Each structure stands twice: as structure tokens, then as C-alpha cells.
Sequence to fold (303 residues):
Amino acid sequence: MTIENAAPGKDITAEDMRSKFPLAAAKHPGHRSIVEVGGVAFGAETLPVMAGPNTVESRALILDIARTAKAHGASLLRGGAFKPLTFPYRSASYFEPGAEALGWLAEARAETGLLVVTEVMSEAQLPGVCAVADMVQIGARNMQNYPLLTAAARTGKPILLKRHFGASLRDWLGAAEYIMVEGNHNVVLCERGISAPHTHRATSRFLLDLQVVPAAREVTHLPVITDPSHATFWREWVAPLALASVAAGADGVMLEVHPEPARAAVDPLQAIDYAAFSRLMRDLDRIAHALGRQVRPDLREAA
Fold:
């Protein structure tokens, strides 16, 4: 699909690509951009994996998870210092650590060499987050918080833009355009599940929209990754949908990893443990290799 001959569709038209998000729009079939984050490339042959806890619960925890993520081939450490928790009530077991956790993330990066991706929820948080993060995450709930998108873009940091669970592909690319129009073209799109009446399990809040991966690749040059952890909200489904994401053409995955998932401070149903993470990383590499890509170059080198 190109701007010149795109057929009108249910969601996106040729006019949208010309005038609504010309910067995010693919200019010709096969148009792909590579987004570099500290030497890690999104959209290239190697598929980066972001791994870590939903919430940076403690210094000891994030250091332990970072070491494990590094050992099994992850490229980025994910973890929330600031969390848009669904309800306002906090307790000793359900909390967000705040600014103190940014220092723990910085320490984990210094020790392991993993890049850091963490969420920002407000413009006021940007200086602290940007001092630590190699990549700034805009969460699903803030996808259309346009002042925050603009302010984040102006920092020059690469942006991970999560799709809101009620947003169309058109909405999502419109949000990306808000970042790109500020001159920051280092945008990676992240599918994290859409709202649907049937999610196949009572605890599963969303459906991972794998169809949006090839659909997005028809209309945008930006890399697209998935977050099967948040989408499924059920750890037994994370591995098959992570594998399916790579098979569908995703440029990476974000995984929630915890040494004791059942004791995680936030979203304990979706995190996978270290053993499951190790298996999944090897399986992801096998799927990627079948498609001419790779997740763990070290496995190829050792073969």
C-alpha cells in the first residue's frame, strides 16, 4: 500500500496517509525504518526482547531480574517506577515505588549493560525518567495524552508508544505523528491488547491483536512489537502469544518476568518465572530463525 494508490479501508484511507500522519505512513511497499536505542535496533534482523517486572519493587529484586534477563538474552530491562494503577488505593503489597526506583534501574543498567525502558505518566516526571531511561514508555492510558506526547518527543529520547485498548490503528498512528512532528522519529509501536467482550478467561482483560502487526506493516514504516503479558493477563498464554507475535512479523516483544510471580506486587497473574523465561527465549529464537531473523545471536554463534 502506498499513499498514491491506497484503497480506502475500514480504518485508514489514502487521504489519512497523505494528510493525517504523513510522517508515520509508509511511502512504498516494504518501507521499513530502524529505530536505534543505545545500539539496539528495532526493525532489524535481531528482535529485541524487553524483560522485567511490572513494578520495580526493590533494589534487590530489580538487580536479580536484570542479571537473569541479561543472562538469557534480553536487550532491555523493563520496570515501572511510576505506575498508572487502576485503583487509587495502595498497600504494602500493591504500590508504585516512585522516584527512588529510578536509581535502582540506573544501578541495574550500570551492572548488566541492559538498556532501560520505563514509563512516564506526566510531564513533571520527564526530567527524572529521562536521566535514567534509554527509552521512554508512553503507556496505553496515556496514548492520547497529547501534551505528554509532545513533551516526551522534545526530550529526544526514543519513545515506546503503547496502543490504548480502545484505539484503532488510525488513532495509534495519529498519536505517533504527535511525536514525530516534533522531529523525534525514534518511535516504536507496542500492541498490548484490545478491549473485547470475549477474552476466553475471567481474569483476562484484553485480547492481543496479532492482526494489527501485519496491518500496521502495510501502512507504517515504524517498528511494531507486542506485550503479550499485559494483553493476556494470564501467564500460561504469554509464551504461545509471544511466539505467535514473532511469527506474525513483530519486531520484538515485551515480557513480564519475576522470580516469584505469585508474589509480584502488581499483576501477579501474568508474570512468568525465570525457568519459563529461559525456555521462551530459546523458543522465540527458533521461530525467528525460521523467518530469517534472530532473538539470541549468541545461540547462532554457538551452534
About this structure: The mean pLDDT is 94. The longest helix spans residues 274-290.
